[in-house]
């Protein structure tokens, strides 16, 4: 498979290594300094583009790939205000795969989080909050993964209707505390507190390898696909 890497930062470089180890060819690398090279003509013989840039650039990059009819795998977070426009493009024949977190562990953790929220629903003595910790270079807050976890709680718990990135005393609000520290790859914890105890679940990434492998597996799934896909399609969760 011939891959275009759009964004050659921490994730782009990790993905390049895993893609090569799995026998793929990197046909094009686009980063900030050569971003004007991302034109449909340069994508002519590319099977799939993997996009990890930043919230401001992601959507424009998708559109260029769509024009070239190249399916996109994207892990960039913080651009979801445009998700309906991407879904429209997918309905008209383009292929797009998005995950706020590509690691197998986090996707299992998403399911565990939903099950725990459902289990807690009848027990009003417990209230939840969330903490996410990432490296100091992260641009968006809270993390995309934290938002997916919050949505999982809100869908499965009748007393939580929204999340806020602050301490809240309102029962219907789920507090998310985002911390930035050193080089932390990504840690997410959910705690259900009562007056007498607490239940805590946590996913802690040791490195970016799990995210990068998931993105390459998604890229292997995508050539010739049309429509909007996510980790549930890949992992059959
Ligand atoms: N879904 C998941 O599993 C994961 C998602 N992420 C997300 O992926 C994104 C990237 O993360 P990460 O690799 O750590 O970030 P980095 O900042 O290390 O890398 C992003 C790269 O994109 C470059 N870039 C900026 N603008 C453009 C552009 N218009 N076209 C092409 N390249 C551009 C940046 O260049 P410059 O530095 O010069 O600006 C940088 O090299 C973030 O949104 C992060 O939240 C991260 C890990 C896992
Ligand atoms: O920026 C990062 O580093 C990460 N971003 C993703 C997110 O926002 O959830 C995934 C992972 O936590 C690392």
UniProtKB/TrEMBL annotation:
GO biological process terms on file: diaminopimelate biosynthetic process; lysine biosynthetic process via diaminopimelate
InterPro entries listed in its UniProt record: DapB_C, DapB_N, DHDPR_bac, NAD(P)-bd_dom_sf
Annotated Dihydrodipicolinate reductase N-terminal domain residues: 1-102
Domain Dihydrodipicolinate reductase C-terminal: 105-235
One cellular-component annotation, GO: cytosol
MF GO annotations: 4-hydroxy-tetrahydrodipicolinate reductase
Reaction catalyzed: (S)-2,3,4,5-tetrahydrodipicolinate + NADP(+) + H2O = (2S,4S)-4-hydroxy-2,3,4,5-tetrahydrodipicolinate + NADPH + H(+); (S)-2,3,4,5-tetrahydrodipicolinate + NAD(+) + H2O = (2S,4S)-4-hydroxy-2,3,4,5-tetrahydrodipicolinate + NADH + H(+)
Pathway: Amino-acid biosynthesis; L-lysine biosynthesis via DAP pathway; (S)-tetrahydrodipicolinate from L-aspartate: step 4/4
Protein known as: 4-hydroxy-tetrahydrodipicolinate reductase
Highest classification ranks of the organism: Bacteria, Pseudomonadati, Bacteroidota, Bacteroidia, Marinilabiliales
């Amino acid at each position: 498979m011939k891959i275009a890497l759009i964004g050659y930062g921490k994730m782009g470089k990790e993905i390049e290594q895993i893609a090569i180890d799995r026998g793929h060819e990197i046909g094009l690398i686009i980063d900030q300094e050569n971003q004007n090279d991302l034109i449909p003509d340069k994508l002519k013989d590319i099977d799939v583009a993997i996009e990890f840039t930043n919230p401001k650039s992601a959507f424009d990059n998708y559109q260029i790939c769509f024009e070239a009819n190249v399916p996109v795998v994207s892990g960039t977070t913080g651009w979801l205000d445009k998700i309906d426009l991407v879904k429209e493009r997918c309905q008209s024949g383009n292929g797009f795969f998005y995950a706020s977190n590509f690691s197998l562990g986090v996707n299992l953790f998403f399911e565990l989080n939903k099950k725990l929220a459902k289990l807690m629903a009848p027990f009003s003595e417990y209230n939840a909050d969330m903490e996410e910790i990432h490296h100091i270079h992260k641009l968006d807050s809270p993390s995309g993964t934290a938002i997916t976890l919050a949505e999982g709680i809100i869908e499965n718990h009748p007393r939580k209707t929204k999340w806020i990135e602050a301490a809240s005393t309102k029962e219907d609000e789920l507090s998310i505390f985002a911390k930035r520290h050193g080089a932390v790859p990504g840690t997410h914890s959910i705690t259900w507190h009562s007056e007498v105890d607490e239940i805590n679940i946590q996913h802690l990434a040791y490195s970016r390898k799990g995210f990068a492998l998931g993105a390459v597996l998604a890229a292997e799934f995508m050539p010739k696909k049309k429509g909007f896909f996510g980790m549930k399609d890949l992992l059959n969760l």
